[in-house]
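Review form for a predicted model. The reviewer records the input and the model, then writes brief findings.
Reviewer: anonymous (R2)
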Amino acid sequence: MAASFGVGWRQVAVGFMLLAATGMVAATYSIVAVPLAREFQPSRTVLMLAMTVLSGTSAVLAPLLGTLMDRFPLRRLMVTGGLCLGAGYVAISLATSFTQVLVIFAVLIAPANVLMGPVAITVLLSRWFAQKRGRAVGIAIAGISAGGFVFPLIISALMAAFEWRLALRALAVVLLLWTIPMAMLVVDRPSDKRLNPDGADEPPLQAREELARNPISAREILTDPAFWMIALTVSIVTAGLKGMITNLAPLAIDTGATAAQAAPLISIYSACGFIAKLNFAALSDKVGPKVLMFCGLGGFAAGMVCLTQAGAGYGVIALGVAITGLFGGLMVPAESYLAPRIFGQRGVGRAMGLLSGAILLAMLATPPLYGLMYDVTGSYTGMFWIFAAAAVAALFWVPMLRLHPREQAV
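Model under review:
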């Protein structure tokens, strides 16, 4: 790697920091939900609708914004996302009803979730890296877990120091100072700095061949079986993780833990997810994604089974959270790693937008379904069993996943 390619690895650091900011939204919602529940008194199911609104709106926006990312400067789009995220938490602090909270998640936080989330970072890093793409994506995606580890501690401290509305305004300031300077460091393409992907002397052969072809169309993506196999496999894990993490604080409190004891569980989950993503970065370019997907699905199923015994106490919950984070976290970067490989770099924004949209649509009902399961049965156990069984089923179709463009011979 040429010394001047340090700017390429700087893009990885930018991705890490921005994903920490967007990743914390779902990871910390169970903490923010406690004062919202006390203030507005929605049912547990309605309380979790905020995550459904976030996922649903993001799913609608992802294909549109993903296509824009192939055409317009990423820096401007990411700065816009940072402003939306900060404004969203200020607006929540001013809300007078839970309906307003849901609207804020749709209008401000969901666009930020796409503009600075995995879709945008994948587009950016797929331009800067080819042979080292797995390493770059894995390191950047680890930012999601880093944000989930750091921000619960920040928010808990702010909630302890201030009334909850003031705490959210302080959080908004932290997020603006976190995201805007990072977004300003984005360099859209290596050619802007007279560089090639990976710092190579010449562009990769595959990149040169793609320049001679038109970008892949949405129809070609949606009719590709590999698209739906990736979407379904990643959805099983990410939907299960999202439902679990957004209900984690209420789950722990229901078994006798205090709110202060519940917050570290989110940090445990995020720390294990952080380790998982670094493992993906270290191994994906060496052992291949299918091996990592096998490990991720199997470990995620084991973690879900462990959480069915949450009634046994705080220690069992912590163990289940750690296992799901450690193994389920291997699946989170898979979408970003596979999309450029299967659909080509020129259309990666469109492919990632459609893929993320499909996955987010699958996740729409998960947080409130966890809440509904609790409202009906008084326990989350049924949802844990459902996701464990789905992960085991996915192990049977992973070997059939294609890892190259459809028109390319093996």
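Findings: The first helix runs from residue 6 to 27.
Further findings: The radius of gyration is 20 Å.
Recommendation: see findings above.
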